[in-house]
Amino acid sequence: MLYKTKFYMQLPATLEDTSIAPGFKNEMDEYFDAVLGDKKTLGVLLRGSDYLTNSLGSLRKMATVEQMTPKIHQWMEEYGYEKIFLATEDSDILSKMRKEFGKDMVALAQDRLSASDLKSGQIITDYEKETGGENYAAKLEDTTINYFYALYILSKCDAFLCSGQCNGWDNVVSLNSGRFEHCYKFTVGVTGDPMTEDWKEVRQVTAGMISRASYPTSKAFFMTYRFDLAEKVCPDKVMEAWNKTLKAYPYMSYGVIARNGRLVLTENPLPFIIRETGEVIEPFERAGNFHTVTFAYLGQTLWIYADLVPIDEIGFNRVMETFFYHYYCLVDCKEYTVPDGVFTEKDGPVPGQDTDGYLNVDAVDPSSMLENMKASDSFILPEFSDKSEVFANKSDCRGYCLSVPSDEMMAHAREAGGSPMSVLAVTFSKALQRVHPENTRAIKVLSSVSIRKVMGNDNSLLHQVVHAMYDFAPSDLSEKSDTELNQAYRTFLKSFSSEENIRMLSGVYRGICEGYTKAFAYGALDKITMEQRQNAGISYGVSYVGTLRTGGYGNRIRMTAFHLMPEKSISLKVTEVGDTFYIDWYQGFHDTAYILAMRDVLSDMGMKGLMIERVE
């Protein structure tokens, strides 16, 4: 199989003062004198646009306005700079810098664009060719002149700050010939965010590299939980309950940051985040204070955003059990009986919460497994036929909650000789086939299987799952009984979950994690992520997270949404809370046909108390 890839090589700059035509140089000198004169000036080069839409690696990751402004303010005050000359091609960056520095900042008057104008992987020159039309030559000339103006004026400033490694940095330093009083280039892709440089390192991320390689490294790969509670959320009690939870699970207090080419967990001194808003507060960035977990609430709805790099959904389920126990004890001013298996602050730090079971076996070469993940002859929904974009826009995604009474779900599972997991996999596959009866290809279902029991680290919060892929043949879905389908799936899952297979796969996953760690260090992880995603076969995620163990407050908690990042797929995450199974459904397109078909299949199986809700 052949893969077509673009390769860009950027050569060291050799632009020097003597290489500029005297007339052009005089023109730029006049501009500098007219605009900045004898003002002591700090030059700032802040790249955005195509540096944000392309995976250029950690060495060329640009610092953001928020990351650069503290040092800009520091230099302005410490060294007495009166003006800032900003060079940027990005309109969003210009707006943020104007808001921050106002009249103290000067920038060229030029046409600018933002990252949102560009397609994923597109560079500025391609965009200008695509949109320039008959005026392309004139626009190219303007762009080139503005580029040289910006670099030359930066080189005449008293000091220079640059957002990261780019040709602009090389050219400005070359033009200046060592005359800058102070000169600094940010390297956030290697050294991490400047805010975190003094934070105490706890440990390197190991198992979590699986999750980190699932989504571009510029964004957090996080789980979104939505709980609709019976009463209004009390934010003070949420904060107090979370602090109690951290006494049992201190691992959850750490931040995930890049440091010296590694992804590490550090102690995090920043304040707890809970806000009254319906907007996402991402962990792993400044808005979320780099916390592993952030909270938001509106009325009776509580959202929890959890970074999927240091944890998985099964581990975090245990954390939420502890959190809700403390929350309802505080809200109700009573001491509930602790549910079996749930830890509280009185237990102190839970042993083994950061144990990585992958490391209990030797690494295994993962190449054969990765080869099997490539595109296969399985059923692809029409909505996924265009694979030019792997990830969906959030505005195109849809979330639903299909709730089923626990007694009805369990009664059918027993009748069919299955389990909640097998019932979910079977009914989901039947739903897809019901909407597309013309399909003759296997429906591939991907499910998470915990390694904790086999590897002896049951309390671990880390990413400790392997993934089981099962093919449902359309003929089996139409001809075999529920009992036959459930038992076949359970037989497969039992074999998959054997100690021998789990230990072998743990070695494979260790090998994958170690490979991703090396790729991250060299700034190549994003490129690998996108290539693997684009070449992977389509599967549909159906995972049974288990029961959220609660006390007498269980039916006051409705788990109406649980999903990961938006992508072109369908994902089901299923959790039992109180007396209800919550099938939290997330898809990267508009349509209700599939969720309605799932409801109808469950109804045909005798389940009556079904309810569908549209959720964000």
Task: Describe the protein's architecture and organization.
- This protein is an alpha/beta fold.
- Among the domains are: 17-191, Rossmann fold (3-Layer(aba) Sandwich), CATH 3.40.50.11350; 195-347, Chloramphenicol Acetyltransferase, CATH 3.30.559.10.
- Helix content is 37%, strand content 19%.
- It has helices at residues 22-35, 50-53, 65-79, 91-101, 124-132, 136-156, 167-176, 188-191, 209-212, 235-248, 313-332, 367-372, 406-415, 420-435, 452-455, 474-479, 482-496, 499-521, 525-535, 593-604, and strands at 41-45, 83-87, 105-107, 159-162, 182-185, 201-204, 222-229, 255-259, 262-266, 274-276, 293-298, 301-307, 398-405, 443-450, 465-472, 540-548, 557-563, 570-577, 580-587, 611-615.
- The chain has a 7-stranded mixed sheet with strand order 15-14-16-18-19-13-20, with helices on both faces. A 5-stranded parallel sheet has the order 3-2-1-4-5, sandwiched between helices. Strands 10-11-12-7-17 form a 5-stranded mixed sheet, covered by helices on one side.
- α6 (136-156) crosses α7 (167-176) and α14 crosses α20.
- It is elongated and about 90 Å long.
Which terms would index this structure?
616 residues; alpha/beta; Rossmann fold; Chloramphenicol Acetyltransferase; seven-stranded mixed β-sheet; five-stranded parallel β-sheet; 20 strands; 37% helix; elongated
